[in-house]
Amino acid sequence: MLRRIVFSSLWALLMPAVGAADAPLAAEQAAAKKVRVVVIPVREEVASPQLYILRRGLKDAEAEKADLVVIDMKTPGGGLEATFEMMEAIGKFSGKTVTYVNTEAMSAGAFIASTTDEIWFAPEGVIGAAAPVMAGGKDVEETMRLKVVSYLKARMRAISEGKGYRGEVVSAMIDAGKELKIGDKVLKEKGELLTLTATEAMKTYGEPARPLLGAGIAETLDGLLVQKFGAGNFTVQRLEVTWSERLAVFLQSLSPVLLGLGMLALFIEFKTPGFGVFGIAGIALLGTVFLTSYVAGLSGHEPIIVFGLGVVLVALELFFWQTAGFLGAAGIGLMLASLVWAMADTWPGDPIAVSWSGDVLARPLTNLGLGLVIAVALFVSLLRYLPRGWVWGRIILGSAVAATAQAAGGVSSESAERVGGLVGRSGIAQTALRPSGQVEIDGRRYEARVEVGTVEAGAVVVVTRKTDFELVVEAGEEGHS
Prior knowledge:
With 481 residues, this protein is an alpha/beta fold. It has four domains: 1-32, no CATH class; 34-238, 2-enoyl-CoA Hydratase, Chain A, domain 1, CATH 3.90.226.10; 243-385, no CATH class; 392-475, CATH 2.40.50.140. Helix content is 51%, strand content 18%. The protein has 17 helices and 17 strands. A hairpin with a 2-residue loop joins strand 6 (180-182) and strand 7. Helix 10 (255-270) packs antiparallel against helix 11. It is elongated. Residues 1-31 and 388-412 have low confidence and may be disordered.
């Protein structure tokens, strides 16, 4: 009996300390149990900015294992291309999705809402009138309209399987010639498009009774979450369309041009001594393509590591070890590969076979190919049309012509004889030779390299032999002839 009293007294003394020690753990567990919700706005006309933020938000939610994505919708409609891409992105998210019609989901908005698991309404919310129209609101030509309507109805049926009357309802929103009838009740006559209010969407039909389209009505989006999960049982992360998304829309359309200009600038930088404006401009242009792809929701954070490694290799080539361009070429290759990766629409957790499939890589490889074509076309134009006396002529063309004069099979016998006569002559290193660079002999510049060690700019060199593409030199002494 005495033992029991002593034990009870000790337990009473220890309980507060135990409770205090467990309090942070309990709070952490409670927070961990809260439903993680990501809210993504779809406002104004459905277009690229809305696509960009939706795609980026869904990928972030997937990576962070969010439980629910809520699309906060108020749109009069928009373009079908952006709409289809948004529907495809929603279908890739592995968690639950909800559309909150706040306060309209017309035309393209109805298509997007039909892709989500549930459709909730503000009290004044409306949805419908989803017939396809041309840009500017003009009617589609009849034959084309029939094809588009047939395709849209089939797609709506496919994504609405197992979701009650949704497929039939959305089809009636698309096709004015379709009658919507449930049981003996006709909800829409032929000759008009279906549009529903929140109250109409929540009416029940059939046996067992099921709502026509809606999952619930809530005064606010927070009210929706309270109805679903209870007050205090969820955390919310809200995304917003920013100026960066709008700027990215414009810059994404210029991706091939930016790629072409960037590659041209880096090529020029490698053909000139030192490091200057062309190198900075090239890296900046390629970096712009990379950043706009990130803002567009195409890439994650991973490609930036590859891009950064490429920049490091280019810097090593230009500033430390001149390796006949090998490090620089590897760096540019990594930068271009990271750009292809950044422009590819990959998803967190996708297998490599899916992430790098032909469909995913088609657009970025097309952009890269166009960029290469633009770079070559601009380079040829500069060689042909730029005045010889301009700075380009002094910096680039002079060295290019001199280098060409050393190549086999494309020079006159006079040029070949002049280059051959340089063996044994001395000159001055115009750039550092590590191992390759440029030397000047009798007022002319030539591509050259050393076979052993390095030579600093300004040092005397002696030509030991020539190859089809360059002179081979070694460090000489002052006054050597």
